[in-house]
Write a structure and sequence with these properties.
This protein is mostly helical. It is built from 20 helices and five strands. The N and C termini lie far apart (65 Å). The mean pLDDT is 89.
């Protein structure tokens, strides 16, 4: 009888824990069983505020204090960024979000990294003020609604040896660990060290089994990445803020005004200057090829910081683009937060409204900014990407070399093979990322009327083929 009691005492908690893990897997089918296991293991630690939860709720103030302890620095520069973050984190909608256990760890890590990056950046500029004398000649900004081919086009444009696109590891860790002359050799070992650091971060995240976004956006330390990574040092655009920023866009855009966003772009310009400095391009920096959907919302602010910039706007029919954007926001929410604090219909309503306003306002903003803009239709990009790139080069007067064309062809062949392998692994010929408007409480007909109809007519945007 004693052994039975001992067995019951041992087995019962194990069964309960197993049920908790299985329940988590049912709620988050896109996550691996290992992820659900780890997330469940964290429950007692979080309840008792032990280990990674010992500091309690994640906040910018705690991240700033951590960064000062970590770097032994104290100057964050202009403190407007802290006020901007406070505006959003204190809203009822953001307060209502509930981080998962692993989401809590990732959010804290990202915020801590951002604050450490900011402190080190300010100090490097003090030590090497000549960085700010480097030109950022005619940067190119690929923009468009999320899910309209911006990443694909950006990757193609970034392949040109004549341009430079910041890689993910550079954006996450742009500041050298030591000062020195603007020479690539001086910073070679340091750049390798920072590259390995970011690679390790990504590998650790993947090892936890988080696959919520792998079917939507390819992530790699050595791949060109979005400007969002640096802009988030000034305004709350971390991925963890994406849900509240988009769904409650009226609050975000009313609080994060022109001056705040302009300062974010000026901050970004300094980061680009630093990236040129550390690879020996202080005298003759290459043209930067940049990308982020958020630029479509902030054309005037972008132009104020980069008055000679070139714009490339990708267009996809709203019937495909809006549901895809909704699916993206939902996927990002799953990375950080509990499902029970997400309203899919609110995602649909918020993004439909924001998209309609943006598609109406952006064309006028381009005119007012006086920036030259090339327009790319998604269907054309998918069916004949090389022709699209050649047309962009012809419009802007850039040289399209045979070497560049060969590089693009090799990339397209490898990308096709990779996507085919993924489809085979899934045992289906379906799209890698599927979604419908109705999943988010939006009727397809709504995306063909009003401002959407005006947009489609203005830019002659056809229905997407896939």
């Amino acid at each position: 009888m004693t052994y039975l009691w001992i067995g019951a005492i041992v087995v019962t908690p194990a069964i309960i824990f197993g049920l908790i893990v299985l329940k988590s897997k049912v709620e988050y089918p896109e996550k691996s069983l290992f992820y659900c296991f780890l997330n469940s293991c964290m429950i007692p630690l979080r309840l008792l505020r032990l280990g990674p939860f010992r500091h309690g709720k994640v906040s910018l103030d705690k991240a700033m204090k951590y960064a000062m302890r970590k770097t032994k620095l104290t100057d964050f520069g202009d403190m407007t960024f802290a006020e901007s973050y406070s505006f959003i984190t204190n809203t009822p909608s953001h307060q209502a979000l509930k981080l998962t256990n692993l989401g809590h760890i990732m959010f804290r890590l990202e915020l801590n990294m951002s604050m450490c990056r900011r402190l080190r950046f300010q100090q490097f500029l003090k030590d090497c003020p000549e960085v700010l004398n480097i030109r950022v000649p005619t940067p190119v900004f690929v923009m468009g609604l999320p899910r309209t081919g911006t990443t694909f086009l950006h990757r193609l444009l970034s392949l040109d040896p004549q341009v430079r696109a910041p890689l993910l590891w550079e954006l996450l860790s742009p500041v050298p660990g030591h000062t020195g002359a603007p020479n690539a050799t001086v910073f070679a070992d340091d750049r390798l060290k920072r590259n390995k650091f970011v690679r390790k971060l990504i590998q650790d995240r993947e090892s936890m089994g988080d696959r919520a976004m792998e079917h939507i956006h390819e992530i790699g330390a050595d791949l060109p990445e979005e400007c969002l990574m640096v802009l988030s040092d000034e305004i709350p655009t971390h991925l963890s803020f994406l849900y509240s920023d988009y769904v409650h866009h009226d609050v975000f855009f009313s609080k994060i005004d022109f001056e705040r966003v302009k300062n974010a772009y000026l901050y970004y310009k300094k980061v680009l200057q630093l990236l040129s400095y550390q690879v020996g391009e202080a005298e003759n920096p290459r043209r930067y090829m940049l990308k982020c959907p958020i630029h479509l919302y902030y054309i005037k602010e972008l132009a104020s910081a980069f008055p000679d910039a070139k714009l490339i706007w990708t267009h996809r029919h709203p019937v495909s683009a809006v549901p895809s954007l909704c699916s993206l926001v939902k996927a990002v929410h799953k990375v950080y937060y509990e499902n029970n604090c997400r309203d899919d219909n609110a995602i649909g309503r918020g993004l439909t409204d924001l998209t309609a306003k943006t598609l109406k306002q952006a064309p006028q903003d381009i005119i007012d900014s006086k920036l030259e803009c090339s327009h790319v239709i998604y269907n054309d990009l998918v069916s004949n990407p090389i022709k699209v790139v050649k047309d962009i080069y012809a419009q802007f007067g850039w040289e399209f070399t045979t070497e560049y064309e060969d590089i693009i062809n090799a990339y397209l062949a490898e990308d096709k093979k990779k996507r085919d392998d993924i489809k085979k692994a899934k045992g289906t010929k379906e799209q890698l990322h599927t979604y419908t408007a109705e999943e988010f409480g939006v009727q397809t007909q709504e995306l063909m009327e009003g401002e959407f109809a005006n947009y489609v007519k203005k830019f002659n945007v056809p229905m997407s083929k896939n």
